[in-house]
């Protein structure tokens, strides 16, 4: 079976002043429409226990555009506005499936500025991309080639907090084909001191520059906090500095995670991870740093889509599975395992590195369900039905 894989190619571009103004206007309208639709859906639910779907919000948008105070929505391409409603629909679907938190309002300062264009709202010809409401193609830096003959189905334009512009093209990539199957499986634990620990005993460190970059970020944030409220120009400058350092951290992290997930997916047929949900991560002090949280979700999503590309399997094991307290040799459960304990010896005589032991337990639990026919299902399916592996199940299924 050949699967057609869609893949996003992201590039920087440099808009003209006219294009930048058009895009900024579009971002503003996207945010406005998203927030109004979210308010309408929230209100309908809170007051009337009524669920509003995409079609209803789309009809609302048509009505909003006819009012005097929202007539400005007609000035931008209607496609990104429709896309915003689709994104909101997706956010609600994920929320109802208990995969994410309730959708939040987009803030003018903090939210990512972006606008999505489907094929009716852009023209891609001779390697030039022109968006709706624009006369000139975007000045894109083609840092890597698009696949031969690829035609984008969706184009997303965004601007980060440091003011840089990006365009992401979603295209079918015929080059991506399932890899030959391998027999290897790996358990992957999100550690404390390390980015990841594998059941093979390998520990993968955070990129070397991350510590220095974080120190720089902390310094820039302190500097911003010191700037007085009234001091507009210096405050804005300090804020841009924070955004710049942060942008560099996220760029480097993305590169690092790309290399890592490609390697893990190539080397292994089955990859077992812990199902850390958003909710859990936010309430958990040790993981609460925004950067670590984002790194984990990014890691997981890259792992999942690459596994789908290459015909691999990702299994997420229930987050209540006591992977650090369980001896991976004899299966005895320790009563307490404070975070300060890095190595420990079980009554059976086995000495464990805390994180490696946890990764081995994850692997065993994942393989137990995988080997047991009924338990094998695509990860997304299992978390939707809430049927991920519980500790008891995993132990029962162990040989
Ligand atoms: Zn033991």
UniProtKB/TrEMBL annotation:
<feature type="domain" description="Probable transposase IS891/IS1136/IS1341">
    <location>
        <begin position="170"/>
        <end position="283"/>
    </location>
</feature>
<dbReference type="InterPro" id="IPR001959">
    <property type="entry name" value="Transposase"/>
</dbReference>
<dbReference type="Pfam" id="PF12323">
    <property type="entry name" value="HTH_OrfB_IS605"/>
</dbReference>
<feature type="domain" description="Cas12f1-like TNB">
    <location>
        <begin position="296"/>
        <end position="362"/>
    </location>
</feature>
<dbReference type="InterPro" id="IPR021027">
    <property type="entry name" value="Transposase_put_HTH"/>
</dbReference>
<dbReference type="GO" id="GO:0003677">
    <property type="term" value="F:DNA binding"/>
</dbReference>
<feature type="region of interest" description="Disordered">
    <location>
        <begin position="378"/>
        <end position="399"/>
    </location>
</feature>
<dbReference type="Pfam" id="PF01385">
    <property type="entry name" value="OrfB_IS605"/>
</dbReference>
<dbReference type="InterPro" id="IPR010095">
    <property type="entry name" value="Cas12f1-like_TNB"/>
</dbReference>
<keyword id="KW-0479">Metal-binding</keyword>
<comment type="similarity">
    <text>In the C-terminal section; belongs to the transposase 35 family.</text>
</comment>
<dbReference type="GO" id="GO:0046872">
    <property type="term" value="F:metal ion binding"/>
</dbReference>
<dbReference type="GO" id="GO:0006310">
    <property type="term" value="P:DNA recombination"/>
</dbReference>
<keyword id="KW-0815">Transposition</keyword>
<comment type="similarity">
    <text>In the N-terminal section; belongs to the transposase 2 family.</text>
</comment>
<keyword id="KW-0238">DNA-binding</keyword>
<dbReference type="Pfam" id="PF07282">
    <property type="entry name" value="Cas12f1-like_TNB"/>
</dbReference>
<keyword id="KW-0233">DNA recombination</keyword>
<protein>
    <submittedName>
        <fullName>Transposase</fullName>
    </submittedName>
</protein>
<feature type="domain" description="Transposase putative helix-turn-helix">
    <location>
        <begin position="1"/>
        <end position="48"/>
    </location>
</feature>
<dbReference type="InterPro" id="IPR051399">
    <property type="entry name" value="RNA-guided_DNA_endo/Transpos"/>
</dbReference>
<dbReference type="GO" id="GO:0032196">
    <property type="term" value="P:transposition"/>
</dbReference>
<keyword id="KW-0862">Zinc</keyword>
